[in-house]
Specification:
By secondary structure, this protein is mainly α. It has two domains: about 220 residues, Rossmann fold, CATH 3.40.50.620; about 80 residues, Orthogonal Bundle (Tyrosyl-Transfer RNA Synthetase). The chain has 13 helices and five strands. It has a three-stranded parallel sheet with strand order 1-2-3. The radius of gyration is 22 Å and the shape is globular. About 35% of the residues are buried.
Length: about 325
Amino acid sequence: MKRVLTGIKPTGYAHIGNYFGMIKPAIEMSHNKDYECFYFIADYHALTTLKNREEMKEYFFNIACTWLACGLDPEKVVFYRQSDIKEDFELNWILCNVTPKGLMNRAHAYKAIVEKNEELGVDKDDGVNMGLYNYPILMAADILLFDSDYVPVGLDQKQHIEIARDIAHNFNVKYGKCLKEPMEKIDDDNKTLIGLDGRKMSKSYNNTIPLFSTEEALKKAIFRVVTDSRLPGEAKDKDCTVNKLFKLFSTKEEAQKFEKDLLNGLGWGEAKKQLFEVANRYLSPMREKFNYFMAHKDEVEKILKEGAIKAQLVAEKVLKRVRIAIGTED
């Protein structure tokens, strides 16, 4: 049985890019008897950007309810809060000492800030805290602490798994084979989801479709999808954003008919109306579950605490192995 691990930061409300890009594939993996799944909410990772106590509490609970509403079964998945696993942060420090600074210099998030600061003509490290700089090492600890074989991620997160693998390799070279070297697992069908404006779906672009908004808010979002100026009766591009989004929510037969109708001149207004209908049909059952869990906080907390107990049993064994390897425990 292969072990699968993934996490999500509670830094905002989930959108369909989060769902199709990471949550859905991860939950599908949990139904495969060949996988043992560990999924967590990365609340300490969120501290790099989230500085408000109430926002942290709100986003954390929202994301926990999102996972459960999307179909996570606590009987099939070890579901836990990152900050409940104290071994994670001890391993983080140990790994800091086998990680070259140059590896952190090449991390995408840090490089992006440096490049932006250079463009502005300010100090290259302006606005960079050590949490952000060392973020990939804590992520490596999250992964390596559970002997993870696979980590389901979006394409933009692939580098983090590569870094975790490099760090595990560095540790193993120095102390002998001790840490499993993980592999990323990317859903080939949804490597990059398209947002309302045709760019990658991202909160930073304000082009997302919220996962659990009201029907009215969902409809407004869908009708914001950017289209070209082709009139009803004119053939539409089958690679348009409306068609790509429709395929996410529809059956194969519905998708084939919709694409044919677009090529035959379906108007944008009617196309968006049909997109809303299939999206709302898909999301409504999950929205109902989400609202249930949001109203039952104690039930959600109980699930997370039980998950943390299961996770800690594994974490203790791996950390003991690491301590023995480095010589701090017999």
